[in-house]
Design goal:
Elements: E1 10-15, H1 21-30, E2 36-40, H2 52-68, E3 71-76, H3 79-92, E4 98-99, H4 105-111, E5 116-121, H5 123-126, H6 129-138, E6 143-148, H7 152-157, H8 164-179, E7 184-187, H9 196-201, E8 208-210, H10 213-227, E9 237-240, H11 244-255, E10 261-263
Parallel strand pairs: 1-2, 1-3, 2-9, 3-4, 5-6, 5-7, 7-8, 9-10
The structure holds D-glutamic acid.
């Protein structure tokens, strides 16, 4: 992708891969016409099973790239990058409005009928200090079943959501949640909404799901409005450090996206 001479102001969104498209969809619905630029760092995914220093370095490089593309608000559409790197982005760019994504612990407590809550997230998110603090703040008297899901984001990242191996993996994690008798499941990784249907099918009827994409979109909309930027409406632009075709397999049905996905080296 060629850098524009005077980049148009936009909201920059990133994730380790396609997961953040679940957040992008909510953003697009909340802010139709506002220029959105999305970067999937698929060549360096999964973040949730990498060293925290790697996630920090990638998040910094990608934020720098999105700023050069005109981003005036950054949405870290990744629970793992938020847990491990949002402090770094805020320290480097103190004036920049930044929105992160965190597992919906507080809404789960409010919604759970019997206080039995499962949290599906990457190993990196669940091992982070930031997650421990979040849980400590809101855990109340609920029973928490923390379920790291190694391999799941990576399998979703392949873009074939009806792949039998992926569906078997989803059933495996669902069986764990069923055994723990949870009534509410927090989708604590932005990749997981893409398998919400098979998960739902494998869990008792009435199990509630928590996905914070809409809350994140609301927060980004507030920060964008506060900047008072007047832009002509634009279509969203998608790019990836990995394979554009794998990304398109998710972006087409999920977003109705028919445009070109650029490959970028960041
Ligand atoms: N989608 C990311 C998250 O919300 C991370 C997936 C990964 O790369 O491990 O945590």
């Amino acid at each position: 992708m060629k850098p524009e001479s005077s980049p148009r102001p936009c909201i920059g969104v990133f994730d380790s891969g396609v997961g953040g498209l679940s957040v992008l969809r909510a953003l697009h619905a909340r802010l139709p016409g506002v220029p959105l630029r999305y970067l999937a760092d698929s060549a360096h995914a999964p973040y949730g099973e990498r060293d925290p220093a790697h996630v920090e370095a990638r998040s910094e490089a990608i934020t720098r790239h999105l700023l050069a593309q005109g981003a005036r608000v950054i949405v870290v559409a990744c629970n793992t990058a938020t847990a491990l790197a949002v402090h770094r982005i805020r320290a480097l760019w103190p004036e920049l409005p930044v929105v992160g994504v965190e597992p919906g612990i507080k809404p789960a407590v409010a919604l759970s009928p019997h206080g039995r809550i499962g949290v599906m997230a990457t190993p990196g998110t669940l091992a982070s200090v930031r997650f421990a603090e979040l849980l400590q703040r809101h855990r109340g008297n609920a029973h928490w079943h923390l379920l790291p899901c190694p391999g799941l984001a990576k399998a979703i990242e392949q873009g074939t959501l009806d792949d039998p191996a992926l569906l078997a993996m989803v059933r495996h994690f669902a069986a764990d949640l069923r055994d723990a008798k949870v009534d509410t499941v927090v989708l604590g990784c932005t990749h997981y909404p893409f398998v919400a249907d098979p998960l739902r099918a494998a869990l008792p009827e009435g199990t509630r799901f928590i996905d914070t994409a809409h809350a994140v979109a609301d927060r980004a909309a507030t920060l964008w409005a506060a900047l008072g930027i007047d832009v002509t409406p634009d279509a969203m632009r998608l790019s990836t450090t990995g394979d554009p075709e794998a990304m398109a397999r998710v972006a087409r049905p999920w977003l109705g996206f028919a445009g070109t996905i650029d490959h970028v080296d960041v």
